[in-house]
Specification:
This protein has a single domain, classed as Creatine Amidinohydrolase (Alpha-Beta Complex). It is 27% helix and 27% strand. The strands form four sheets. Strands 8-7-9-14-15 form a five-stranded antiparallel β-sheet. The chain is globular and about 45 Å long. It starts with 6 loop residues before the first helix and ends in a 5-residue tail after the last strand. The structure holds magnesium ion. Magnesium ion (MG) binds next to loops.
Length: 249
């Protein structure tokens, strides 16, 4: 069931989203060579709690940390650990904040030091595909219009869209209907209406679209070991077009 939010509810989601976005940005400041992903996770947790919020992912389905931190071929759901970041790594920070009954969910891919031009392009294309997708997130369009715009932007670069994991509705629950795939046909899927809030999150692979889950039952990696990039914001669909709720400002 798709829940539609009032303007007052969306204002509260913007508060949750702001905290998630601040945590994402803070993580970016700490990403450098030699730092462990566990240390970055601790900074994320501190920032979220300092705003009176709770890390959405902590304990969700048993997840043991405050953020998902996924490195290189890890697509999503990386578990923070004693792994030290190395120059050239690309690091996906996915963070949610729960505040006054609502969730905000966002992700970004950061670079440690300097990396290859190929990796930089993958990251840039992934982020840009999010914006291409949400251009179509207006009342009257369908979910498939967003999905198709993302896929159509990405695939000419030779990249592939992860198919096993998708974006989602969000609100009082971290994951709500509808699903928001990063691939598919325009004109299909649920119709968008004012007050819907969704997390749009392209996950883009440099090689095969296929992924597998590691034996820790969380971390999803590319099947071919090639790089993957992720970018996400929570948005509201309004009469004035899409509004990004996971905005620091
Ligand atoms: Mg999400």
């Amino acid at each position: 069931m798709i829940t539609v939010k009032t303007k007052a509810e969306i204002a509260r989601m913007r508060d949750a989203g702001r905290i998630a976005a601040i945590a994402r940005a803070t993580a970016g400041e700490y990403i450098k060579e030699g730092v462990t992903t566990r240390y970055i996770d601790s900074k994320i947790r501190s920032v979220i709690r300092s705003h009176g919020a709770h890390p959405s992912f902590l304990g969700y389905g048993g997840f043991p940390a405050s953020a998902c931190i996924s490195v290189n071929e890890e697509v999503i759901h990386g578990i923070p650990s004693d792994r030290e970041l190395r120059n050239g790594d690309i690091v996906k920070i996915d963070v949610g904040a729960y505040y006054k009954g609502y969730h905000g969910d966002c992700a970004c891919t950061y670079v440690v030091g300097d990396t290859s031009s190929e990796a930089k392009q993958l990251i840039d294309v992934t982020k840009e595909s999010f914006f291409k997708g949400i251009e179509l997130a207006v009342p009257g369009n369908r979910i498939g219009d967003i999905s198709n715009a993302i896929e159509q932007y990405v695939t000419p670069f030779g990249y592939t869209m992860v198919r096993d994991f998708v974006g989602h509705g969000i609100g009082t629950n971290l994951h709500e209907d509808p699903e928001v795939p990063n691939f598919g046909r325009a004109g299909r899927g649920p119709r968008l209406c004012e007050g819907m809030t969704i997390a749009v999150e392209p996950m883009v692979n440099m090689g095969t679209w296929q992924v597998k889950t590691l034996s820790n039952n969380w971390t999803v990696v590319t099947l071919d070991g090639k790089l993957s990039s992720h970018y996400e914001n929570t948005i509201a669909i309004t009469e004035n077009g899409p509004v990004i709720l996971t905005d620091e400002n």
